[in-house]
Automatic annotation (TrEMBL):
Origin species: Lacrimispora celerecrescens
Protein name as it appears in the record: Succinate-semialdehyde dehydrogenase
CDD domains tied to this protein: ALDH_F20_ACDH
Database matches in InterPro entries: Ald_DH/histidinol_DH (IPR016161), Ald_DH_C (IPR016163), Ald_DH_N (IPR016162), Aldehyde_DH_dom (IPR015590)
GO MF annotation list: oxidoreductase activity, acting on the aldehyde or oxo group of donors, NAD or NADP as acceptor
Keywords, ordered alphabetically: Oxidoreductase
Aldehyde dehydrogenase domain span: 5-263
SUPFAM superfamilies xrefs: ALDH-like
Domain of life: Bacteria
Length: 452
């Protein structure tokens, strides 16, 4: 093991041993502090995130810093994670929480503040120490968060080393770190996730997003368009749960696109202009790093297209859906692809085929009041979350209005080569011991009863 990574892990190990001696109240005091610090410093941290990553929207990052710190702590406070979790006298089971140890967390430049915060809160809630391996374009943010935490940890008499940041991150160092720790959270590109799963340690990764947006007949089109646009443009489209497409009923297709235009969309009808834009967004078939998290005006300018300043999102009309079309992929910028359908079954098939190109296991955005249609899509689509009449980008990671675990790590199941098909939560970062007693009044059923 390299000396730098070895030193980090040893420091973390010593701090974790002290952390594991705290009671529930003191442990929760630390977790709450981790949220409150980001909440209280939301503006300067958002400013640094935009400057360092060179992507996203300052105002949206403020909302993210405040929103995630608020909802994650609210979901965790008052919940047991230390010692005895519960007793089931009838079953004869007593469950106890135990730390995993040291968590290695690879974090992305798209969320350089809230992902380290979230992962640290989950880890420390279960009395694990954590080492953050930030993206190179997120290391200043991680260091700034650490400095704020250290002032509070010093005040609380808690070892600083329960939260460590790799100062000069690299692929090699991150790979080494993941192999040296006890469990891994990998929030980033597929290469990083694959490396985590190759580390030999229990790992939680994410899959790519490509959230398909389905609009059902009879829904309020104005409200649906508003939610889908808000989902697409949040933080200039870098959120993996942002809505990627508009799959609308043929009979109301033009009316729906007009609604999108009225709310800030720039709809491109010219196939030549669409092709010109595709070369800028997907040069060689892969998304360009130069368009990720940029405004529609900046992206259009790269393609030599002039767009009014009041336009928020570009809508293209691909010639078809599914394989072989770049617009079927995830677009990490404020661009949406629009399709029309004759039947709901066809709408779901369009979404399914686009997901097979990219984004299997992530999420779908459905705007519908028809429970039969909603459940049909839920059964048919290979996704872990079906968001109904919500702003997917800001709510698929948990919201006060829904019951999903609040998180910054959205598991995509085996579809996305992930270990879990749900939102990562602190409960995923604890070991459990079980005391097993003989059940009261137990009786073995007869063979006739068993096989009847």
């Amino acid at each position: 093991m390299g000396s730098y990574v070895h030193t980090l892990v040893e420091r973390s190990r010593r701090a974790q041993e002290i952390l594991a001696t705290y009671d529930q109240a003191k442990t929760d005091e630390i977790v709450k502090m981790f949220a409150k610090v980001v909440f209280d410093h939301a503006e300067p941290l958002a400013k640094l995130a935009v400057e360092e990553s060179r992507m996203g929207v300052y105002e949206d990052k403020i909302l993210k810093n405040k929103g995630k710190s608020r909802i994650i702590w609210n979901a965790m406070k008052g919940r047991k994670s230390v010692g005895i979790l519960g007793r089931d006298e009838e079953a004869g089971i007593i469950e106890m929480a135990k730390p995993m140890g040291i968590i290695a967390a690879a974090t992305p430049c798209t969320n350089p503040v809230v992902t380290p915060m979230c992962n640290a809160m989950f880890a420390i809630k279960c009395q694990n120490a954590i080492i953050i391996a930030p993206h190179p374009r997120g290391r200043k943010c991680a260091a700034a968060v650490a400095d704020l935490y250290y002032k509070e940890l010093d005040r609380m008499g808690v070892p600083r080393d329960i939260f460590l940041v790799m100062e000069e991150p690299s692929v090699e160092r991150t790979t080494e770190l993941m192999a040296a720790c006890d469990a891994v959270i990998a929030t980033g590109g597929m290469a990083m996730v694959k490396s985590a799963y190759s580390s030999g340690k229990p790992s939680y990764g994410v899959g790519p997003g490509n959230v398909q947006g389905l609009i059902d007949e009879g829904i309020n089109y104005k409200e649906a368009a508003g939610r889908m646009i808000a989902s697409r443009i949040f933080d200039n489209g870098i959120i993996c749960s942002g809505t990627q497409s508009i799959i609308a009923p043929e009979k109301d297709y033009e009316e729906i696109l007009k609604e999108f235009e009225d709310q800030g969309a720039y709809v491109i009808d010219d196939p030549d202009v669409t092709a010109k834009l595709a070369k800028v967004v997907f040069p060689g078939g892969a998304i360009s790093k130069h368009v990720v998290g940029q405004s529609v005006q900046a992206i259009a300018g790269m393609a030599g297209i002039s767009i009014p300043e009041d336009r928020k999102v570009i809508v293209v009309k691909p010639e078809r859906y599914g394989a072989g079309i770049v617009w079927s992929k995830e677009k990490m910028c404020p661009i949406m692809a629009a399709y029309s359908y004759k039947t709901w079954e066809e709408a779901v098939e369009i979404a399914h085929q686009n997901l097979l190109v990219e984004g299997e296991g992530h999420s779908a955005d459905i705007q519908s009041d028809n429970r039969t249609h909603i459940e049909y899509a839920g059964v048919k689509l290979p996704v872990s979350r079906v968001m109904v009449n919500q702003i997917s980008s800001s709510m698929a990671g948990g919201a006060f209005a829904n019951s999903l675990n609040p998180t910054t790590t959205l598991g995509c199941g085996s579809w996305g080569n992930n270990a879990i098909s749900e939102n990562l939560f602190y409960t995923h970062l604890m070991n459990k011991s079980r005391i097993v007693l003989v059940k009261k009044n137990w009786k073995q059923p007869s063979d006739e009863e068993i096989f009847s």
